[in-house]
Design a protein that fits this description.
The chain has 281 residues and is α/β, with parallel strands linked by helices. The chain is built from 9 helices and 13 strands. It has helices at residues 58-72, 88-93, 109-118, 136-141, 167-176, 193-207, 245-250, 260-266, 271-278; strands at 3-10, 13-19, 21-27, 32-38, 42-47, 50-54, 78-83, 101-105, 129-132, 147-153, 177-186, 212-219, 227-234. The strands form 3 sheets. Strands 9-8-7-10-11-13-12 form a 7-stranded mixed β-sheet, sandwiched between helices. A 4-stranded antiparallel β-sheet has the order 3-4-5-6, covered by helices on one side. The protein has a two-stranded antiparallel sheet with strand order 1-2. Helix 2 (88-93) links the parallel strand 7 (78-83) and strand 8. 30% of the residues lie in helices and 31% in strands.
């Protein structure tokens, strides 16, 4: 008998992966955490039945949520990551020697524990890492002029991650960033109608808080439609004009997806996405 994991991307579209076995199923205080093993995508993590990452394509998401801001900010040393219990964003950040501290605000300690045990590929041990197992919305509320970059690696805008898409949250992130700070967030998919509405809501709230707000894109096969957006918001730095490609390339950071040519191209959006975002700007 064949076993399949399936997730509805819309009421009329279902994404399925054949599963060899289930490795873990844990019900935490906040959500159901499961890890499966598949022949095509390797091990993958789901939260409340929604795909979070797979061993096969997680590098795309994690490289794009970290290296874009690091290639623009000239001297990022203090980083806050909100969410990211799987560890992939911290793995990518740990490649930068100039970073002095990485604070991680993750609401669910069980996600971290499960991923360290079953998905060690996305985990990293680094003395610059400090975990705070609390609500990211509350954590950032009391921070002022402290971080060079904030990366919001949250789940979708419902359940435990809902508050991380609010106007209040983005305003608090603005306050927590230094004068040349950058906010990066996962911005959902613009393709299906319901997801596109979430993109518009998020973008509208960020635009209200930041002078510079742009979206960029990546292709992530296991996410709805495969077309995924990230948000780049900043007080002064522009994501393309202030890219220092020579400086970043000289660091010798190893990647499988991100490079500085792709960086520039990722901000060139399809017409339908430009129109979607223009409606709320």
């Amino acid at each position: 008998m064949e076993l399949w994991f399936s997730e509805f991307h819309t009421p009329h579209v279902k994404f399925s992966i054949r599963v060899d076995r289930q490795l873990c199923c844990v019900k935490s205080k906040y959500q159901r955490i499961e890890v499966f093993e598949s022949p095509e995508f390797g091990r993958f993590l789901t939260l409340d039945g929604y795909m979070m990452l797979t061993e096969r394509d997680e590098f795309i998401y994690h490289e794009m949520i970290t290296h874009v801001s690091m290639a623009v900010h000239p001297h990022a040393e203090n980083i806050l990551v909100i969410g990211a219990g799987d560890g992939g964003a911290m793995r990518e950040l740990s490649k930068y020697k100039q970073i002095k501290k990485i604070d991680v605000a993750e609401i669910d300690s069980e996600v971290v524990r499960v991923c360290k045990e079953f998905l060690p590929h996305t985990s990293v041990e680094d003395e610059r890492l400090t975990f705070f197992f609390e609500d990211g919305l509350k954590f950032v509320r009391n921070k002022n002029d402290e971080y060079d970059i904030i990366i919001v690696d949250s789940t979708d805008p419902f359940g435990p991650g809902e508050g991380l898409f609010s106007k209040e949250f983005y305003g608090n992130c603005f306050k927590a960033l230094k004068s040349d700070g950058i906010l990066i967030n996962q911005h959902e998919s613009p393709f299906y109608e319901k997801d596109a509405e979430a993109v518009k809501r998020t973008h509208k709230r960020i635009v209200q808080s930041f002078d510079i707000s742009r979206c960029y894109q990546a292709h992530i096969p296991t996410y709805p439609s495969g077309h995924w957006l990230f948000g780049f918001a900043a007080k002064t730095l522009h994501p393309v004009r202030d890219l220092n490609a020579d400086r970043w390339n000289a660091l010798g950071i190893e990647t499988r997806y991100y490079n500085t040519n792709l960086h520039k191209g990722a901000f060139c959006l399809p017409v339908y996405v430009e129109e979607l975002l223009r409606d709320v700007e």
